Amino acid sequence: MPEEAFTPSGAQRLVEAAVGAGVEVCFANPGTTELPLVDALDRVPGVRAVLGLFEGVCTGAADGYARVAGEPALTLLHLGPGFANGIANLHNARRARSPVVNLIGDHATWHLAADAPLTSDIVSLASPVSGFVRTCGTADGLAGDVLAALAASVDPPGQVATLIVPADCQWDPAPSQPPPAPRRPRAAPVDEETVASAAKAMRTASSPVLYLGGAALGERGLSAAARIQAATRRPVFAETFAAKVERGGALPWFQSLPYFPERAVEALAGADVFVTAGAPPPVSFFAVPGVPSTLSPPTASHLALADPGNDVAAALEALADALGAPERVVQDPRPALELPSGPDLNADVAGLAVAALLPEGAIVVDEGATSGLGYTVRSPFAARHTTLGLTGGAIGIGLPLAVGAAVAAPDRRVVALQADGSGMYTIQALWTMAREALDVTVVVFANRRYAILGLELIRAGIDRPGPIATALTDLSRPDLDWVSLAAGMGVPGWRATTADQFVDHLRRSLSTEGPSLIEAVI
Amino acid sequence: MPEEAFTPSGAQRLVEAAVGAGVEVCFANPGTTELPLVDALDRVPGVRAVLGLFEGVCTGAADGYARVAGEPALTLLHLGPGFANGIANLHNARRARSPVVNLIGDHATWHLAADAPLTSDIVSLASPVSGFVRTCGTADGLAGDVLAALAASVDPPGQVATLIVPADCQWDPAPSQPPPAPRRPRAAPVDEETVASAAKAMRTASSPVLYLGGAALGERGLSAAARIQAATRRPVFAETFAAKVERGGALPWFQSLPYFPERAVEALAGADVFVTAGAPPPVSFFAVPGVPSTLSPPTASHLALADPGNDVAAALEALADALGAPERVVQDPRPALELPSGPDLNADVAGLAVAALLPEGAIVVDEGATSGLGYTVRSPFAARHTTLGLTGGAIGIGLPLAVGAAVAAPDRRVVALQADGSGMYTIQALWTMAREALDVTVVVFANRRYAILGLELIRAGIDRPGPIATALTDLSRPDLDWVSLAAGMGVPGWRATTADQFVDHLRRSLSTEGPSLIEAVI
């Protein structure tokens, strides 16, 4: 088709524009209505295409990539139903404020009225998880459309942007040169008055609390918060489910606000000034009768030092300066972690072993749920690393996040701490790890139940669940065999039933190139 | 809690009302906001709760149950993200016009304003796949709400109904007696004039075509269509992707309209009258440049004998009578199918073996995609059985449909013909088959690629796909090991690489209680 050589298609223009704007990766699960875009990825070099065998793998991976790289990846998804399979992890990406750009192929514009079997209202599906939704109208517009989506995605603090691309817009010729990529906007600085008010409030309050979220949990933010704490000697809390936290080594560490709202209310009781940096004030994860939705005391005055879209780290540094804090806080040396041994294996033992053996610079993906605590409490004593968490409560993000993190940082070991129940939602991610030979160590905490639901049943006064409640929170009958599941997708795996085995397998996995999995039977 | 014994909770009232309306099954993947409903399932006997480890399993199973039982099952899903995981298969249920009632727990009404992590716009997510969406407001209203949803779901021809149930409405006391269950509406009869017009049109046209869909593909509809064909000697077509087709044994059989629109247009060329029964006129599955969306000739006049919500079988019988058709058409005896043998295994051979060995009364779930044809062309010669198809094009319904069909019909063997690519989307269904000991034979056609996309690339003129297009349509590197995957979820499996092995494994599976899987490497 010689004219194609002279007049690129809309799809080619879209990919050209995306590459020009710096896009390097596309997590894809395409179908027929995306084939011109697939073809364009071959014709326009510059984008690594990573196949997921389920769309939730693609969207979760794009989130993980964004959290680690700080840049948006594309996803390529098939019409409404394909997109729908990616919504749960986009919900998490939205809560993580991750820049992600979804490309959804749709029917040709002239075919929509036929209401063909795969037709559905994609805008209605996309809106709840997207800060930007656009349906493209012409081939010539695609380049500008994707640049607008990319720009929206990185608009501080970051968001999910969704582009619905009809098939004819992809395959039709697009003669116009694409517009230039816009400059990436910077996070807005916090003005001096806000910093001065926060400093004054913290100095004059009897019980001020500093609450950190989002970018405040990076190295600069944490260091500044440590200076503030040194100056005020008042509590500092981190948000409970953070997208990304720098941790370990010589980094300062702050306690996360407890998950159960009664405990969080207790932890914050008596605060008269509540200063937030990088996150809105904390609310209860679920409603609990008799416990307020807002966790800080109603009598505390709230002061937002920095919103998520602000330059949070700079604001914290300015606040530390205003408080006359020391230039630098040197952390007390922390005790080395001692490796567990012996026959007993439980989540605590496994978490300790992970923290003790964690390699410098690792990325820990934490979807350990009730089994993750053993690691979490030891993580400040581990080597310097990054933790990615479950931000939106939509389970099934751990393995996909690990895929995206590993693609973004091929030189870092990724350790995925994975609850078994959650892991089943997007287990297809293991295959992508194998295909892409990603250096991921997957630790599955196999307690064979939805343990959090067991706890919540007790909290709801259902101390003796009946047979149905028991069955619906139980993952046994039959037990999942994670070693077989991993083998089925080309990932080597080992089962550990003792601490000694777990340590052996973990050492082996951490020194194995490509992915491997350890089923910790706890 | 003694007062609870006297004042049931909203959740209990809801379950009471559902049981009173005849609900017997709930496919569930609950979380914290659904626990009062889980508890109510224990307190109010009558509902079998079936756990899925992923929500798409639950929604696809509810669709399969509805198609086989003709009655709605409940699903129980966790907030927006949990529901979202079920959307793709609800899209198929919507296209199948299956009665399904989704119960989605949401945050307590007073907690929504807090915008807690799991909060999202559930109505926006639910609307594209639901004919009925209601957000409950009070505990006392729940019984009436679920009855309204159930009534909407069975309003002919059937639809998906979604009820969003805030947690406080579930746990608050509901003193009022629930209202009585409304009578189930019947399909509207087709009036005599419509039948007479259709008869006149078919008699006077030079080239009338009868097109069957929905309920027309049941035993009564097919028998009536055979009478019509005997009277008119004109072509009769079945819709391409039917929800449920009765087939085999002595049943009449009609060719399905071809999938590729060019072929469908050819098949219908020359028709001057196009009579539909049980389905709207056929449209192209995807847009193809130069091919119209509507497949019947633009010059043909369309006459709807019966809409999907009508009593389609009765209308066809009336039309046969009006055409003076014979009372009964006896099918010519069909040749017996000969079992394949030898070393060569391919989709055609496997399909023939399935058709030849199919037990009387089996339910075949057909998500074989490009590999399914070998079975489909032999199915009229198989024993009397029922086929369930992929109605909405959202792949990943096969294994869940099989779960629902097996729950609805424990005395019938279910045979799931499953393309490998599609099967990966909802592979968690294997675990539910094992837990519930469902008599399902899963045949995985392991061609290790998205073969339909390979075909569509060629059709789009991309004869030599580049490395990215090749990688994104290829399921090898690594190969999926379906025997390991099945074993990981407690399902025994065997791999066949020859026809002889396939026949042996198939015989063994068909005589094995509970689920088993055959990976046919083709």
Features:
38% helix; homodimer; Rossmann fold; 7-stranded mixed beta sheet; 17 strands; 3 domains; globular; alpha/beta; 22 helices; 522 residues
CATH architecture term of the largest domain in chain A: 3-Layer(aba) Sandwich
Beta-strand residue percentage of chain A: 15-25%
Total of helices of chain A: 22
- CATH uppermost class of the largest domain in chain A: Alpha Beta
Q: Main sheet of chain A: which strands, in order across?
A: 9-13-12-14-15-17-16
Radius of gyration of chain A: 24 Å
- Level of helix content of chain A? 25-40%
Major sheet of chain A: size, sense and barrel closure?
A: 7 strands, mixed
Question: Count of DSSP E strands of chain A?
Answer: 17
Q: Which two chains have the most extensive interface, and how many residues on each?
A: A-B, 102 and 101 residues
Rounded mean pLDDT score of chain A: 96
- The structural domain count of chain A equals 3
- Characterize the overall form of chain A: globular
Low-confidence stretches of chain A: none
End-to-end gap of chain A:
61 Å
| CATH topology label of the largest domain in chain A | Rossmann fold
CATH superfamily of the largest domain in chain A: Thiamin diphosphate (ThDP)-binding fold, Pyr/PP domains
Q: What is the oligomeric state here?
A: homodimer
Structural class of chain A: alpha/beta
